[in-house]
Structures
1.
Amino acid sequence: MDNDKESVFLKLVHQHKGILHKVSKMYADLPENREDLQQEIIIQLWKSFSLFESKSEFSTWMYRVAINTAITYFRKEKKRTRTFAPELSTDTADEIYDAGRDEQLEIFYQAIQLLGPIEKALMFYYMEGLSHKETALQLGISEINVRVKLSRTKEKLQNLIKKQSHGF
Amino acid sequence: MDFEALKNKWNSENPAEVNIPSTIARLKKAQHPLEKLRRTMKNECWSQLAAVLFAGAIPQVFGLSPAFYVVYYTAYSMLLVTSGYYFYEFYQFYKEVGLYHADTHESLWKIYYELRLNMERYQSFGFLLLPYFLVATALLGYDRLISEGKTLQQITSQQQVIILLVTLFSTLLAIGAIVLWTRYVYGKTAREIDGLLKEIKDEI
């Protein structure tokens, strides 16, 4: 019975592993820290899995647990040399080379590291295509608050990118 | 940077670097701050339990006169009852801390509230133990006095002042240690969650 539950759980997590990838990339700068955070998220998902009600989407529930785990994961990590030009980054030798990796997306991820945990959550939900209403439900704040905070966060992110790179 | 245009790239990103284990048992030990806190609580609970059980054997270990057993074990039974209540409450906190399925604000608020409540519980439990230790120490001291053929009337004024000062100083020391230990174990996490709550509820 438990084995069935475990295999269903792991299958669902596997289907939605993109969430793990994106959340960890937003909240952890280095590959080893990302891997640790992914593990922490899986542990928390498993712990709460019995409370998952199948009337809601697994992905919606997974967003919550993943974001809540990531924002309370206060571990101080070693920061990589802060440059937004990926080809100049000095701490990427241990990362798997991926020719298809998009330069703009890398710049975006690196700029994201300079945001606060709640700002990262807002940007994550925005990039995932959630409406203001859905984001408000996930974060437990008002829709107006989401709209204003998100607008401020996007502006902040634009300024960070402009300030530290050539802008796009 | 056009974030709307970036969404397509975001959606088509390959999550190659994610490793999903084949079984839950293959996951590493959790290092999340709240999981570490749970582990500390679990270890502490065992040592507290051992200390409470050891307190039951103090009369035999220190050779307290059987005439004082009734007084000692009355105080000890009160210690057992209050400890039972606190252990139960600590267990409830231990079980529930770190469940993140509610919305972010609610989860953070719940963790913060439970953490602060547990800090207060921990401190009040520690403070409640002080009168028990006072009774135990007084009984052992009085028993020794009698065995030396002395009475309370024979304690000089200077000795009385010393006893009072030592009691006062050790009580203050114990209170300080309990407060500092609680802040050391829970304080950092509570402050960090408080910061997140302020950030999330920073209304317009």
Note: The two ends of chain B are 26 Å apart (CA to CA).
2.
Amino acid sequence: MGIYLLRRLYQALLVFFIVSGIVFVILHISGDPLALLMPQDAPPSDIEEMRRSLGLDKPLIVQYGLFLKNAAQGNLGVSYHHGQPALKLVLERLPASLELVVTTILISLILAVPIGVLAASKRGTAIDRASLLGSLIGISAPPFWIGIAFILIFSVELQWLPSSGRGTWAHLVLPATSLALYRLALFIRLIRAGMLDVMTMDFIRTARSKGVSEQKVIYKHALKNTLIPFVTIAGMQMGSLLAGAIVTEKVFAWPGMGRLFLDAIGVMDFPVIIAWTLVTATIFLTVNLAVDILYVWLDPRIRHEK
Amino acid sequence: MNDTSANKTFSPAVAEEPYAPPTAHYLGFEYIPAERQLLHSFFSSKLVQGALLILLLLAVCAVFADGIAPVNPLEQTLRSRLRPPIWEERSLSPYYLGTDSLGRDVLSNIIYGLRISLLVGFVSVGISLVIGLTLGLTAGYKRGFWESVIMRAVDVQLSLPLIMIALCFMVIFGQGLGKMILVLAITGWAEYARTVRGTVLSIREKENVEAARALGFGPWTIMVKYLLINAITPVLILSAVQVPRVIILEATLSFLGLGVPVTTPSIGMAIARGYQVLFSGSWWASIFPGLALMLLVACINIVADWLRDALEPRSREQV
């Protein structure tokens, strides 16, 4: 168990290292930020001066070594565009993104578990079919388009909710629900399928034949065993949501790190692009590691293994 | 009674009834022999038939887009900017679903856009299938050094969000249809490699494979005839899930302006253009392309569910 976790930790670190290397190297050979940074008519001597001051004149491997050394001290470089430390810029935007992602996950989990259980326990009925159809639509619609449709209905037509910005709870409703719809649909399908699978197992039949009430069979015996593997997928979704929220942040002008990243792409602001990638990868890897630990802890069969 | 049973034993040709597979009911599922499950479930589900029919229609539209689209999707007419769909006032004749802010026909953009969606979806999944199948087969059959190299790469890739990998690659390589197909193919190969390796590992020690090896068949024959055959079902199921995923990813990248170039009509870009005129009340420019994309993806998802349920009835839903 301890060895297993150590191996996972080592693997996460390895991934982090590889990601940083790949992003750094390829970004730096793919384009020259100075072309965008300097005015068109800048004299060549000024450009060289700027290149030196940013450290872009050194060989790539030296640049990468410097980058790693600085990164270890929490310094990912200064944004070419904003003139501030890139990591600070990204971390400043992190709370807004986390707010959106956590709300989204909560909405999808709170709704998906009861709907999935209900659909599975009433298999084949109108409720089940409605939930299947609804979740089919949910997994088939691109989240950014759902966001646009929501803006049209609730902001432009009904004028109930604001369509952009952040601040009050009302601002959070549309981005979070539009982002949640896909996960909600996915989770409903997973819980329903998991429940149906568990319900055919022997221990359920044993519980029933012992005279345990149907309610208790469903919620205590079946749901508990369905949720264990579900935790893994829900956790991974949470990590990937942080990256997936970019589009929703763009649609709703949400001031999160995704928008910072998109803006940075437009002006080839390498330090910000790298900082975003590394922060997102770190959070994703951490969440996955936490989910692994939780999974081991939840499932006694793994917990007691040597 | 004795006579009839004797008859049956000695002259099977006189059997009264043709052979019918036994039907049994277990927990509400009717038992159907595996080889007939695919067709059986196809003919028993109107939903699947409908989805396949719509898919076929959309595919025909995409292939013959030049003949079907009412106007050139890239043609900009200033006179017909932001025209609503044909059933509303102010509409203009050939623009059935209205026009966008540059006077481009929404319907034609959808038809050409679906062509791009289907092309990107199927070609890039095809490429990742070939890469993943080859590497997974190699890893599972050869074992040793190459297996650990390949599987470490798979671990690295699967431990990062798909959209993040795609975004970073598109930033690095820049816009372009070919580049996009390639990038999406790169983001998809790892799951194939993992699936195929898993299948190969589970059957490479089976008796028939051992026997083939003992009979002196070469590695190629064993890989193709014994291992590849068994990997077809899981790979087919995975592909059916990957295609809609890639199609949505393509639309997302194009919506962000990081996908296909502006001169290529794509659904994502059409939605992005519609988004710009959202607040002026021109809803059709963003809603219709999205609906079309949703229809396409939903139909593929229905087919994917059917394939999985029919081919692997006991499998847990894979995502």
Note: Chain B touches chain A at residues 27-28, 152, 155-156, 159-164, 167-168, 171-174, 244, 248, 251-252, 255-256, 258, 268, 271, 274-275, 278-279, 281, 283, 286-287, 290, 293-294, 297-298, 301-302, 316-317, 319 (CB under 8 Å).
